Amino acid sequence: MKKNYNQSVLGVFASYIKPHWHAFAVDMGLSVLIAAVDLVFPILSRWSMRELLPQSLYRTFFTVMAIIFTAYILRAAAQYIVTVVGHRMGTMVEADMRRDVFTHMQELSYSFFDHNRTGVLLSRVTNDLFEIVELAHHGPENILTCTLTIVGALGILLFVNWKLSLVLIVLLPACVIFGLRQRIAMQNANREVKKMTGEINAAIESGISGIRTSKAFANEEAEDEKFDAANEAFKKSRVGFYRAMGRFNAGVEATVGIMQVAVISIGGFLIMRGEMNYVDLITFTLYVSTFTAPVRKLMQFMELYTQGMAGFDRFLELMRTEPEIRDAEDAQVLENAEGRITFDDVSFAYGDGTQVLDHVSAEIAPGETFALVGSSGSGKTTMCHLIPRFYDVTGGRILVDGKDIRTLTQESLRKNIGLIQQDVFLFAGTVMENIRYGRPDATDEEVIQAAKRARIHEEILKMPENYRTYVGERGVVLSGGQKQRISIARVFLKNPPILILDEATSALDSVTEAEIQKSLDQLSKGKTCIVIAHRLSTVRNADRIAVVEDMHIAEQGTRAELLAKGGAYAQLERAQGFT
Ligand code: ADP
Which of 269, 380, 474, 481 could serve as 512's disulfide partner, Cβ 3.0–4.6 Å? Predict the structure, then answer.
């Protein structure tokens, strides 16, 4: 069930903690136990020193000490469980959130990915979530234990000696404010380090991806210099951070020392005036060290909080982004389409306002091969992307078998369309898995059949582990032509009635192209087929050709008609050296 991300931040947080509330409760309960042991030790020591030592009650004294000893063992066990259970809960919450972000991103439309860079999205799913989850389990635990120890210790001290407590009450906020300021400086320095880490990563990434270009231009030295600059800046920011960290650590230690000295000075003064005894002074100094742990933790919490909340805001922003294209409530399932495609007065502009199509109309009959030609950037790909509803038209409508595609479910619409593009993406996996992507329930035999028809079977057999050969990143490197035929095999398996070939062969040499053209011809038999091609040789056999120009279809007809007309198409053929 999808969560409601429009509720308050705390509400969303709680909804993620809820399934793991057992772990959360254990975490909180044991944290209270730990705080309690810390609080009780000095007060029990005080009681022993006051009541038991003067009377030389050996047995009771050692019994009390044995109890405290056991309490510390228990505290250690509790600490262990809190660490394990807390972090395990954190990991589970993180996994849940990661699954939700991933699922959500899969639902988002093409336009979203036009505007968001992969690297940024990747860091949302990794770094951001980690920081959120650190906050989710350390946050409540820190607040609870710190409040308990600070308030508890102060209460006890007020009861022991209110005058000396006043010293602490005055000094403590001063220490906290000082510490916080140092911590903020440290956080700013850390932000700088993060920024520089981003820069250096970008420098490495662009350096490595561009290595072929820089070698070709013999520009390695210039690249080195660019990199050195980024590396230097990174080093500086790191040193800045360590300085801030040094100031913070030294400062906190110093404030603890100052508190101890102040307590002993004022305490000593009170003792000399007969207003206090030694035992209470010892109790006080013990509590001073009890204070420092929670104060440190609170400062750390502040940092967790700002980072975690920033991550959470970005998480919510992403989760609150609605897919631009959704199925209509009463969307119908398109089954076994005949394959008639109608552009009815279609206009389209991208989200950034780029107008691409202006009142375009065309009718493509079932089984017809319809070619789109025209200069690059004229809107051919865009026209093709409108048919599977990667984007919605901004005017007019597109019909498949006479039905407005907005009244159909996206899934059934896309099942009826096969798209082959110039860039083929292979998922990390085996060749078999990559072809099966066309129809996940296909048997091995069907996959092999499809590979044969796409004329890639023989080559697969020559690969190290034939169909089990690993491809994709870190796998066997396939040539452009091989990848292209794998994508054709996918579509053979899918066997949709509508086929879109978007410059499917333009990146290939002419021998490979001729080879692939044969498998494409076989694939397109009996299907409605829209072909975009740069080389006119590939569209000469099309039933009809349309020239896209200036946001319009300038002319359409059979090749013979267009040539007879002597218009835009005839000109294109002449430019490419035909006729
Ligand atoms: P063709 O396939 O004919 O080369 P396209 O359909 O790819 O042309 O592009 C048509 C116009 O739309 C171009 O001006 C291009 O810059 C613009 N365009 C393409 N994709 C996008 C996008 N995702 N966002 C904004 N503008 C785009």
Answer: 481
pTM to 2 decimals? 0.75
pLDDT for the residue numbered 475: 67
Cβ neighbors of 344 (< 8 A, separation 6 or more) are: 361, 396, 397, 398, 399
First vs last C-alpha separation in the chain: 62
Residue among 465, 471, 468, 541 nearest 501 (CA) = 541
Using CA atoms of 57, 62, 63, 65 in order, give the dihedral in degrees to the nearest 10: 130
* pLDDT tens, residue by residue, 25-49: 999 999 999 988 888 888 888 888 8
Q: How far apart are alpha carbons 503 and 538 in whole angstroms?
A: 10
Other CB atoms closer than 10 Å to residue 575's CB: what's the count? 9
Host H or E run for residue 487: helix 480-494
Q: Is 354 in the pocket of ligand 1 (CB under 6 A)?
A: yes
Residues 6+ apart with CB under 8 A from 175: 252, 255, 256, 258, 259, 295
Amino acid at 570: A
Distance (Å, whole) CA 340 – CA 488: 22
- In this predicted model, what pLDDT tens digit does every residue of 135-153 receive, in sequence order? 888 888 888 888 888 888 8
From the CB of 550, is ligand 1 less than 6 Å away? Answer: no
For residue 420, which phi and psi values (nearest 5 degrees)? -120, 120
- Reduced to 3 DSSP states, what percent helix, strand and coil does the chain have, rounded to the nearest 5? 65, 10, 25
For residue 353 the two structure tokens come to: 């306002």
Q: From the centroid of its chain, how far is CA 56?
A: 66
Q: How far is the CA of 377 from the centre of ligand 1 (A)?
A: 6
**3-state DSSP call for residue 403?**
strand
CB of 380 sitting under 6 A from ligand 1: yes
Other beta carbons within 10 angstroms of residue 220's beta carbon come to 12
- The pLDDT of residue 70 is 92
382 ligand 1 Cβ < 6 A: yes
What radius of gyration do the chain's Cα atoms show?
36
Indicate whether residue 376 lines ligand 1 (CB < 6 A).
Answer: yes
User: Among residues of the chain, what percentage have pLDDT more than 70?
Assistant: 98
- CA 155, 159, 164, 170 dihedral sign is positive
The phi and psi torsions of 422 (rounded to 5 degrees) equal -65, -45
Task: Quickly state the pLDDT bin for 22 (edges 50, 70, 90).
Answer: very high
Judged by DSSP in three states, 544 sits in: strand
Please write down the HEC assignment for all residues of 322-378: CCCCCCCCCCECCCCCCCCEEEEEEEEECCCCCEEEEEEEEEECCCCEEEEECCCCC
pLDDT digits (tens, 9 = 90+) for 207-249: 787 888 888 888 888 888 888 888 898 899 999 999 988 998 8
